[in-house]
Design a protein that fits this description.
The chain is α/β, with parallel strands linked by helices. It has a single domain, classed as Arginase, Chain A (3-Layer(aba) Sandwich), CATH 3.40.800. The chain contains 9 helices and 8 strands. Helix 1 packs across helix 9, helix 2 runs parallel beside helix 3 and helix 7 runs parallel beside helix 8. The protein starts with 16 loop residues before the first strand and ends with a helix.
Length: about 290
């Protein structure tokens, strides 16, 4: 058995990466269970090989600290306040903070922290959904509104959304009306090789980025364990090609992996999410 992420007890002050489990779901509207996502991902991480043959790196050797889980009984805006206070000092110290959800509403606080410390960042948002509603089911801070709230941050220069294939008319109005938003729709990407569209994605992003990765951005054949498994998502290799290119060319300020919903008697989705985390760390370490 491999050691899991952060098991060696690396103190945050000596770590390059700080992971924050956020077992929160308050505004989930379909299948529930994403609160179990962080624990399932970290448990699956004990089985991930610690050498990455693609980059020739051992990313955990760079130092990975895992903080105690952070959650809230309140609404997502209250959780955002808590996460912003936790994440901001680490970003200011130059560490890369990765938050593990939980529903997608958990992304707001970490993005706010990153945008206020490293102004002018771009958000690389992989998702089936734009999450640009102004309000959804009685709250302006739920999972369907998180990127609308992100756009209210002055330190966010661009929102580039990849893999979209479940778009509401409210989402579409924002996409058409805000020049900071650049969508890449799944129906278009499906007919193109990754090499054809990844360059276009990166051209839209500034030099510093935050990656918000909703696992439903991947096709359900890769990650069936998510709240809304929309068909027609990114392939595993397409997603990795995007991440490798992005993290080679851009400075990673922070990231999150959200919406993992553990499935009883199956670890397929848990392991895919753990491997996704490992690959992101490897690509960040490999960047010179």
């Amino acid at each position: 058995m491999n050691r899991p992420f952060g098991e060696e007890g690396v103190p945050p002050g000596k770590a390059r990466f700080v992971l924050v489990p956020v077992p929160y779901e308050r505004t989930t509207t379909y299948r529930r269970g994403t609160a179990g996502g962080p624990a399932a991902l970290l448990a699956a991480g004990t089985q991930v090989e610690l050498y990455d043959e693609e980059t020739g790196t051992k990313p955990l050797d760079a130092g990975v600290a895992v903080l105690p889980p952070i959650s809230s009984q309140g609404m997502p805006d209250e959780l955002a306040d808590d996460l912003r206070k936790v994440v901001r000092p680490h970003v200011a110290a130059g560490r890369v903070v990765g938050c593990l959800g939980g529903e997608h509403s958990i992304s707001l606080g970490p993005i706010q922290a990153a945008a206020r410390v490293r102004k002018g960042i771009g958000i690389l948002h992989v998702d089936a959904h734009p999450d640009l509603r102004d309000e959804y089911e009685g709250t302006r801070f739920g999972h369907g509104c998180v990127m609308r709230r992100v756009l209210e941050e002055k330190g966010v220069a661009k929102l580039v959304q990849v893999g979209l294939r479940a778009v509401s008319s409210d989402d579409d109005a924002v996409i058409r009306g805000d020049r900071r938003v650049r969508p890449f729709y799944a129906y278009d990407l499906a007919h193109r090789e990754p090499a054809e569209w990844i360059g276009a994605v990166l051209a839209e992003l500034p030099g510093r980025i935050y990656v918000s990765f909703d696992v439903d951005g991947l096709d359900p054949s890769v990650v069936p364990g998510t709240g809304t498994p929309e068909p027609g998502g990114l392939s595993w290799w397409g997603a990795l090609a995007l991440l490798r290119a992005a993290l080679a060319q851009k400075e990673l300020v922070g990231f999150d992996i959200v919406e993992l919903l553990p499935v009883p008697h199956s670890q397929v989705s848990d392991f895919a999410a753990a491997k996704l985390l490992f690959k992101m760390l490897a690509y960040a370490v490999a960047r010179k």
